[in-house]
Amino acid sequence: MGEKHGYLPFPKSFKTICIHHTKEPKRETCKETMAPIVTSNICRLESAGGPSQVIKGRLLNPTRSVLENLIAKLCKTKYALTYASGIGAIAAVFSLLKSGDHLLCNDDIYGGTSKTLIQVCPNFGICTSFIDLTDLKSIPEYIRPNTKLIWTENPTNPTLEVMDLCGLSKVAHEHKLMLAVDNTFLSPYLQRPAELGVDLVVNSVTKYMNGHSDVIMGVVCTSRDNLYERLKFIQQHFGHIPAPFDCYQVIRSLKTLPIRMMRHMSSGIKLAQYLENHPKIEKVLNPALPSHPQHDLFKSQACGHSGMLAVYLKGTDLDTTHKLIDSLKLFVHAVSLGGYESLVQMPTLLSHRDTPDKLKKISGITDNLIRVTTGLENIDDLIADWEQALDKI
Ligand SMILES: Cc1ncc(COP(=O)(O)O)c(C=O)c1O
């Protein structure tokens, strides 16, 4: 991976920023190197009738500020705002819209996002067209006078479609639309969409950025002052903020993000190569494989791929897929991704169970699809686990 394989170069000093940035803010009490966990939810006001001040912890928290400043640096944006979950960060972006607005969303998308768009946003008068955003030329025909936002993931959940982010940003900006990209599957170490012209970059911090399966958090990054001001207002007044302790946990986790991502990446490729050549596997999707239809596009936008794979068993039904999953011993059957442990799940029954059948069909979410995430275990053990499970079906 990295530059010599045709990928974008890894960002300069990223690893150093992860380690050293959290010495801020400068404190006078002692010279500790970790950010303090500040739990106070009240703030002492300097003087009655004085200038306006921060009046409570929901509006500003020092531990949260350290984390947000760090994430903004890693995402190469001016600002980052954290929320109580990834879906909370996504909801904050949708809250930028008002009643009567319309947005375009890719048809392959995380089931929680499509559920929010289909079951919540219409209550606020916001409607969505689900379309194929990989087909850049067709996008203008779906843009309406009230369209305000283009939303996608890169790569997508669960079938790892790759978007042309520069192309999308050109279309969006020609039509004066905001472009938002969910970067969860790669983390800022492997892809920084803001550098490619994306206005709003979302990450479910719960996944790779925290990486230890013990925090739920989301973040929105932007360099646009007006969007930051509105998102900040939404963060403060909808109040879906993360707790100081969780902010501290993520500050600590980010110190190891680059080394964790390198391991996820190498194991993901090795398992994908093994499965791709197995007679009981129909197809494996991993954008780092030359067999992926958008491999070259992917390399031009990212520094590498994570441990996310979409694996299609050959000609099997739901029962056989269940049997395979139940036979795996190391891969935990669970939703989520990006932690230290390897996971498997069937999108059609779990992460995308409420996705309308029409969208499932278009996206290729079928009964023989297993979403796989490789963790940090020994790769030979992970391959051996699949080998013994495949022998059982
Ligand atoms: C791509 C993507 N975005 C957002 C989310 C939501 O994140 P959270 O669980 O932190 O709310 C998920 C959850 O699986 C996801 O896969």
Automatic annotation (TrEMBL):
Any Pfam family hit: Cys_Met_Meta_PP
Matching entries from InterPro entries are given as: Cys/Met-Metab_PyrdxlP-dep_enz, PyrdxlP-dep_Trfase, PyrdxlP-dep_Trfase_major, PyrdxlP-dep_Trfase_small
Q: Which GO terms describe its biological process?
A: cysteine biosynthetic process via cystathionine; transsulfuration
Q: Which cofactors does it use?
A: pyridoxal 5'-phosphate
- Indicate where the modification N6-(pyridoxal phosphate)lysine is found in the sequence: 207
List cellular component terms (GO): cytoplasm
Q: What is this protein called?
A: cystathionine gamma-lyase
Taxonomic source organism: Acanthoscelides obtectus
